[in-house]
Amino acid sequence: MTVYIVLKLIWTGLLGVLLTGLGLMVGMDMGVGTLLRFIGRDDAERRTMLNIIGPHWDGNQVWFVLGGGAIFAAFPSLYGTSFSVFYVVMILLLFSMILRPAAFEFRSKVSNKYWRSSWDVAFLISGFVPMFAYGVTIGNILEGVGYHFLWTGQYIQDENFLSYLINPFAILCGLMSVALSVQQAGSMLMLRAEEPLYSRAKNYASPGGIIAAILFVIGGVWIQFIKGFALTAPVDYNMPANPLHGQSVVMREGAWMDNFHAHPVLWILPAIGVFCMIASSVLLRLDRAGLAWWLGAGSWFGTIATVGAAMFPFLMPSSTRPDQSLSTWNATGSEYGLICMLVATSIFMPIIICYTAWCYHVMRGKVSVRDVLNSHDSY
């Protein structure tokens, strides 16, 4: 096995880690935005919820930058094609996320009920839409995306963007993503909020994990009847980043289960996901929010790892030209580029994780309505 092959495998694994971190950290903040008007019954309670995530939400957005940067540098073909295929979805995602920092900055500037209610709706949109789009995108990739390349390497999209949005399986994946974000957000609120926010957060977070587990199992059954993708001939693992040749791929029902049938040990991944979702919900009912939060991290890991194990080595398969599907073998950057990125990641990833942990440690403890109302610096 050459160094280049090892680097391709390492970066495929790191991509999964970054997607897990994105779902966990960003999803937690987005979930609070989604729940803002449901848990907070008045302006003071909503301000308290915003101040719980206020010190961390912008730092957590680093996972968006890390994910996009990693795809750009390590998987340039995947970056260019995916951002083009899902262009309209990305625009909707970006517009919804632009609302978020504006809402944090301007909501409390004017003491007017209608002004603040309008920004509360902005929080709902900027919380629900990104997490829904995150799940929808993964669901669409599992079903295959309509695109192909001309002999010049020019990308051609073969499906209307509405088919990516109005799609039953993708909608199921989107709702599961939202359910996980609600569970994670509720865990965070239980850790940092007092009554009555504590009990209300529990009433949303605990069912969120159960709903996510149910949708996850339904998706697992459903995917066995979806046409997946499978290699029909050996490939050159050292192949260059050129999707126009080097692969022989077929679409057939149940192909996404091939890796699980060939390597039964992989079944531990969905088992981890379902176990963590259910166990986290149970612990939330038992007022063990701290442990439930960490099990929520296991829920995201089990979900992303299950999808990755099912799809490997595919990253974004093409439903119109399966042979041109983007995979670990034909969508990575150069060996030199992957080495440089790995060195940078080895240095800065631990720094980011340690700094994030330190921030949460320093700002631990409960946030009360009284503290928020008496502070001139609160949101």
Mean pLDDT: 88
Beta-strand portion reads 5-15%
Radius of gyration: 21 Å
Q: Return the domain count.
A: 1
Gross morphology: globular
Distance between the termini: 54 Å
Helix percentage: 55-70%
Strand count, sense and closure of the main sheet?
A: 2 strands, antiparallel
Give the number of helices: 15
Count of β-strands: 6
- Listing every helix as H and every strand as E from the N terminus to the C terminus, the arrangement reads HHHHHHHEEHHHEEHHHEEHH
Q: Low-confidence stretches at least 5 residues in length (pLDDT < 50)?
A: none
Classify the secondary structure makeup into a structural class. Answer: mainly alpha
Within the largest sheet, what's the order of strands?
A: 1-2
